[in-house]
Write a structure and sequence with these properties.
Layout (H helix, E strand, L loop, with lengths): L5 H12 L3 H23 L2 H20 L9 H22 L8 H26 L3 H11 L5 H8 L3 H23 L8
Helix pairs in contact: 1-2, 2-3, 2-4, 3-4, 5-8, 6-8, 7-8
Length: about 190
Amino acid sequence: MEESSVQEHGKLVERIRSGDGKAEEELVRFFSPRVFAMLMARTRDREASRDLLQDVLIAVLRSVREGGLRDAERLIPFVHGTARNLVNNYFRDKVREPRTEELTDDCASVVRHDMLETDERERMVRQALATMEEVDRRIVLMTMVEGWKPGDIAGKLGLTSEVVRQRKSRAIKKIAEIVKGLSRSPMEGYH
């Protein structure tokens, strides 16, 4: 489609609304280079501009087919407005997108160190649990791991809710003391 008059754009819109596939191809051929140039000027990114061009053309064709363009003779401003809106959305999304940075060797060593600390803490908690009475260990595990309420645990173990709460409290304090004692450095007393 060559540069055409406003009336020809109106006729093109009517043909698209009536399901004419050739009219859709004409619209794509006419607007693709113009919209692509506008998108390149705004984004300065060829790949992003290609993707956005596809989005613009799909949105325009869908809107024209569904009657979203009220004044068929205003096709040019409609296409450019759609392109402007989509490129603005692209920049808004880009701002919200979290920045990614490559992990350095320092970052990897921090992650490894954190994983080692987590493994060490788990080992110490297991060791502390192993020193407890069976009932206290079950209460702690049922509460902290399985998410049971004291009333439910009491029914299961044949105790009162108050006894379960007291035993849980004492057991957690004991675990904290044992872990604190295990986590002290052997050289700590020599400073």
